[in-house]
Each structure stands twice: as structure tokens, then as C-alpha cells.
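Q: My labmate handed me this sequence with no annotations at all. I'd like to see what the chain might look like in three dimensions before we decide whether it's worth expressing. Could you predict it?
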Amino acid sequence: MAEFATLDVETLGRISNMQLLAKGVVEGFVLGLHRSPYRGFSVEFAEYRQYVPGDDIKHLDWKVFGKSDRYYLKQFEEETNLACHILIDASPSMGYKSDGAVWSKLEYACRMAACLSYLTLGQRDATGLMVFDDQIRQKLPARGSPAHRQLLFSTLDNVRPGTGDTDLAGPMHVLAESLGKRGMIILITDLLDDPVKVMGAVQHFRFMGHEVIVFHVMDNDEIDFPFDSMTQFIDSETEQDVLVAPQAARKQYLEEFDRFFSAYRSGFAGLGVDYKLMNTRASLELALREYLHRRSRLF
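A: Here is what I predict for the chain of 299 residues:
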């Protein structure tokens, strides 16, 4: 499967099966890690971690030390496994796809979720899924069985944009109240909602003891506003349209864009939440790196 290490977004876009795509991206990614300066993400990642001052030395593996001249701790299953819950925003705005793009924001989000699920399940982390817009549309509990894996990928294959109003906070509060064991929350969304409400819902997860990663998925058009001729814009929820002269609107749009999302960036930083802006043209491997980076800090 080494050939997947060099697949680009367009090639991946032609792979429709979620599990096949996820397998290819993750296996290529793991091969790349072995050639990279990253540490601690080998095939033994779920069994060892590097010693840091203050750790109990009774769990040091001296055989590994003799071979590598580095101190590693043995970790037990209950210490390495966690419950990971992946939340996908399927509100109408997530259906946006610019001309020439391989995937819509929602299609990109689902493929990102598939890759992350393949990785988490491979690390024996129980993995759950919630798809929502103004309410919870689909919910799978965090499990790790082969049957659950197939159900998860099948669900991701069939996610479609919702038709209701956007309400990211409501379903997130419902999920936060229902979760028991502390774990990791991975939120994949375009964040096109009231930042105060969304931040409150994320804070709910943090209050319950969960680690949180937010992958902010945006189309390149939304980030760069590359339009250069009269363009008709249609609201994905209200279907209202407006004709805009981009040359006159670009500066104001980019300023508003920066103000709106800087509220999220600073807010998440204050909550200790990892935030990553993802252009739908970007490699899915960026999400895998962010997840592994966050997970490595937990153990």
C-alpha cells in the first residue's frame, strides 16, 4: 500500500469507498512518519511512551533502553485506550463546493473523519460518531469492534447536508450531557454559527474533562474570495440571493472574515482547545498529524 503515500487530493477524490480511502491515507501516512522527525508514533505507539521526569521508574523497559539508549515506559491497555467521539457538522452550509473543487466541505469532513476513525480504531481507541445540523441526525456510540467499524464507514459514506437551520451548540450540549468516560472530542465544522454559543458548547465538553480538537473546514473560495467578476451568491439556508461586484466587496469581506474567525481562534486558545483551519484543498494527513500530536500529550 506504499503507493498511497503520494496520492494527491484529486486522486483520492476518485476513491469513493470510505474504508479504502482511509486505509490508503493512513497507511501512507504511517510510512511517512517512519521517515520523518516525529517521535513516538511507531507501530508500538499504543504500548510505549518516552520517559519524562516524574514518571514511575518501575515501568521502565530496560530491554528497549539497551537497544535504543532511550528510556521508555510500558503502558497498559487501560492507560493507552481512550474513547474518541467524532462530531460532523452537516448543516446546509457544509454542502458548499467551489468550481473545480474535488469535494464539498461535508465530503471533505466525512473523508477526514474516515481517516481519523481508521487511525483511532487501529490504536484500539473506541470511536463514536455524531452527525448533526440543528439536531442530531445520526449517532454511533464509541466502540471498537469490527462490526462497529463497518457501520461507522457505511454511515460516513451516506452523510448528506441537512436542510434545517444551523444550530451547532444545541446537539453538542446534548452529547456532552450523555457522555460518561472522559475522552477526546473531534469537531469537524465550518463554524458558521454564533461564536458565543459554539464556544459555550465546546466549553461544556472541557468542563466534563474531555480533550477537544476543532477542525475548521473551509472552501478555498471562502478563505481567499478569488472572484473577479459580477457574482450571484445564494444563502444555503434561506436561498436568498444577492448580486455582488467582488472588486468592491473583497476588502470588506476579508476583514469581516478575519474578525469573525479570530473570535474562534482566540476563544479556543483560552479554553485549551486545539484549533486547525483546514482548506478543502489541503492534504488529509494534516488532520492525522494534529490528532497524533494531541493524543501524544495525553499520555
